[in-house]
Amino acid sequence: MAGSRFSLVPEDVPKVDTKYRRIATMIPVPESVPVFEDLERFESVSMHGQLPVFWDRAEGFQVYDAWGNKWLDFSSTIFVTNAGHGNERIRDAIRSVVDRPLLHTYTYASRERVNYIKYLVDNTPEQFEKAFLLSAGTEATECGIKLMRMNGFKQGKKRPGIIGFEGNWHGRTMGAQMMSYNPAQKEWIGYLDPNIFHVPFPYPWRPKAVEDPEGYFYENIEDLMRTQGLSADEDLCGFMIETFQGWSAAFYPVAFVKALQRFAREHGMLIAFDEMQAGFGRTGELFGYMHYGVEPDILCCGKGASSSLPLSIVLGSREIMDLPEIGSMSSTHSANPVVCAAGLANMRYIIEEDLIDRSRVLGELFHARLNAIKNRFPDVINYVLGKGLLAALHFNDNNGDPLSDLATRVSERAMRKGLLVVHTGRETIKLAPPLTISEEALLEGVEVLAEAISECLEGR
Ligand SMILES: Cc1ncc(COP(=O)(O)O)c(C=O)c1O
Fold this sequence. Notes:
alpha/beta, 7-stranded mixed sheet, binds pyridoxal-5'-phosphate, Aspartate Aminotransferase, domain 2, Aspartate Aminotransferase, domain 1, 4-stranded mixed sheet
């Protein structure tokens, strides 16, 4: 919860016992409270805002604590466990490296690294000829910015301009934070990168963006050029695009992204997609950008790349990926063999088990049911956005004013009923079950969500 926390006072809640959920104790569990208090005492407060569930074990699409409670998970620990929690094939792959043992290699070669990179490149569109592995998503987006700027200077650009979008988010390290929009989150930096620019996002509630997405793109980009005195040919190296907006699951209109691609090609700019939340089947395509019918130059991935250990990826053409000289783009934990084994097993599982198609097909049912919820509560929910097994419910009143507090209460209520959702701290609740979820469990989760909303509105 942005700036605040959920209550740690245990409350009596109705007991739940279904095939997929079990709530057998007070919530939060009284025995878990001292553990949360220890965390508060010894760890930065910035880590504390999540639902007070103490994870002991997670398998498939369920999360268990040590006191007999069991949750249906609609979070995938924020878009990570696409192949399911504790996926057996991923565990086996990790174990085989751990038991050999080969726990770390820095940039020395390992069989795991070769196997993984080769599989990754072979199974992604052909413009991606090389990959570079890192640990965190924010490192991948930083790297995307670096590559676009290096490419721009090589092309003779005078300034390293990169354009992003209002409302986008790319990570917490300094460059990624600057590339992100949220002005309040950037105050600590004390200055702004004069070569990072943001243009308005074509939200579905902006009529002009809906009626004429292409015109909306050109109007705003031309406005930026005029007010900043920029020449696209000389000053702009690329676009950094979050495939859909993290907080809202809002996708761009297709015509908008196509216009952006045309503009980029005309002016020697690159396009980098931040696929952190959208990648690895989440939206019903291997990568979310595929919904737009464009060809990015750079892809920055993370989260669902391993369904487990810290792994992020940058993909691009040989020409782009070889811009940095030997040793100038590396990180101590890049391409750790254990992580590479997890990444390979994960991607294989997603492809071989058809999880991408599963996300698309189950996603249609998911969105139909969520839209039925929206229709049931039209005074408090005005949008259901997303694709595949990714959705966001937007809680707004009839004037369009955000109902963030209601979204928070619904998240907490759902947890008490045995369902975990992604609490954004804003007026949205995001839903992203592991792609392995069964139809029956998916529908049970949606029903629990509807009950949680109804109970919160009735003040129960
Ligand atoms: C779209 C997007 N980009 C970048 C990041 C940063 O990834 P990480 O937290 O792994 O650094 C996130 C994380 O939430 C994200 O959602």
